[in-house]
Specification:
By secondary structure, the protein is α+β, with helices and mostly antiparallel strands. The protein has one domain: 2-Layer Sandwich (HIT family, subunit A), CATH 3.30.428.10. It is 28% helix and 20% strand. It is built from 3 helices and 5 strands. The protein has a 5-stranded antiparallel β-sheet, covered by helices on one side. The protein is globular.
Length: 133
């Protein structure tokens, strides 16, 4: 069975380790939207051992901190769904009270046009790198 997260990087690569990678999602309304993607094709968090699980979450929280610093959102949404692509990945989404879907999840009903937001990608890359030592 083919899996898009096994077959491709899944976005612009910002950082990677043996365990996982961080990519930038191309969405003009959600500048700074990142995904933390496990390199291996694993379905659920509880399929990982305790150490891998902790390491993955350290990465997710470092990305959250970097997204907060660079995008300065009103709120960050963390989500791990995997219903469409059952390959472990976390969404780290900067949210603004006047964004396209707020207060819905970004996969929910569009509430307004919403402005396009860009971030400094190099600054975000650097902040993630710094956060992960
Ligand atoms: Zn996969």
């Amino acid at each position: 069975m083919s899996c898009e997260l096994c077959d491709s990087v899944g976005g612009e690569l910002l950082w990677q380790s043996d365990l996982c990678r961080v990519v930038l999602v191309e969405d003009p309304h959600y500048g700074g939207f990142c995904r933390v993607i496990l390199n291996a094709h694993v379905r659920e968090m509880t399929d990982l051992d305790t150490y891998q699980r902790a390491k993955l979450m350290v990465t997710v929280f470092a990305v959250e901190a970097a997204v907060r610093a660079i995008a300065q959102p009103d709120k960050v949404n963390l989500a791990s769904l995997g219903n469409v692509v059952p390959h472990l990945h976390w969404h780290v989404i900067p949210r603004f009270e006047d964004d396209r879907h707020f207060p819905n999840p970004i996969w929910g009903e569009v509430k307004r046009e919403g402005e396009k937001r860009q971030i400094n990608v190099e600054a975000l890359r650097q902040a993630i790198k710094t956060g992960l030592g």
